[in-house]
């Protein structure tokens, strides 16, 4: 009888272990935003390599844009010249985008008085963005790039989230394809501010 009970406990433990591994794999591969399969696309591993001249041309195109905010009012990116500008391309359906936004809101609140401006450009439908901000507080301006932004210079991104940091003088500082953690970004902001 004890052998049967031990076998039963081992079978139950094995089934629970397999179920736990399957659940974790589901969370990482499906809920985490990674495509199912054996590989992660190269576009999600690291940003494409661009020359400094190409990076600056992207920044110049971005700074020449005028995009609507969530109320439909046009907002010129040029209004933030002279500030350290953190531009984050995002979408409401992009889980890593949504996960990094609370950190961006905290940093914006912490550094706005020191000349740091965060701007979110949604590569999304305006109705989706409006619904998102009803449930999630964002402390910085959100502008509408639209889902079909690939034709517009300054909005052409290969994947989301994508963040560009621009120095006060309008020069390209850095970019990051994929989620950007708060500690890394704060260190960069402190360096640019001169702390």
Automatic annotation (TrEMBL):
> Domain of life here?
Bacteria
UniProt domain Thioredoxin: residue ranges: 34-194
Q: Which GO terms describe its cellular component?
A: cell envelope
MF-aspect GO terms: antioxidant activity; oxidoreductase activity
> Where found, per UniProt?
Cell envelope
The question of whether Chaperone is a record keyword is answered with: no
Which Pfam families does this UniProt record tie to the protein? Answer: AhpC-TSA (PF00578)
Q: Which residues cross the membrane?
A: 6-26
Q: Known InterPro entries for this protein?
A: AhpC/TSA, Thioredoxin-like_sf, Thioredoxin_domain, Thioredoxin_ResA/DsbE_sf
* GO biological process terms, semicolon-separated: cytochrome complex assembly
Q: Which SUPFAM superfamilies match?
A: Thioredoxin-like
Q: Predominant location of this chain?
A: other
Coiled-coil intervals in this record? none
User: Is this entry keyworded S-adenosyl-L-methionine?
Assistant: no
The residues forming the signal peptide are none
Q: Which UniProt keywords apply?
A: Cytochrome c-type biogenesis, Disulfide bond, Membrane, Redox-active center, Transmembrane, Transmembrane helix
PANTHER family xref list: THIOL:DISULFIDE INTERCHANGE PROTEIN DSBE
Q: What is this protein called?
A: Cytochrome c biogenesis protein TlpA
Which source organism? Candidatus Accumulibacter appositus
């Amino acid at each position: 009888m004890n052998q049967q009970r031990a076998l039963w406990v081992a079978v139950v433990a094995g089934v629970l272990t397999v179920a736990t591994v399957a659940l974790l794999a589901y969370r990482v591969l499906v809920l985490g935003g990674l495509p199912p399969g054996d590989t992660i696309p190269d576009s999600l591993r690291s940003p494409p390599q661009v020359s400094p001249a190409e990076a600056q041309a992207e920044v110049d195109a971005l700074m020449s844009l005028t995009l609507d905010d969530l109320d439909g009012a046009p907002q010129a990116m040029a209004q933030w010249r002279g500030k350290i500008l953190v531009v984050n391309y995002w979408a409401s359906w992009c889980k890593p985008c949504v996960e990094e936004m609370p950190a961006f809101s905290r940093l914006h609140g912490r550094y706005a008085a020191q000349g740091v401006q965060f701007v979110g450009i949604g590569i999304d439908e305006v109705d989706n963005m409006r619904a998102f901000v009803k449930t999630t507080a964002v402390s910085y301006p959100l502008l509408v790039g639209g889902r079909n932004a690939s034709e517009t210079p300054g909005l052409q991104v290969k994947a989301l989230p994508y963040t560009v940091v621009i120095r006060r003088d309008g020069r390209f500082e850095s970019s990051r394809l994929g989620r950007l953690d708060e500690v890394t970004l704060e260190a960069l902001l402190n360096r640019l501010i001169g702390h």
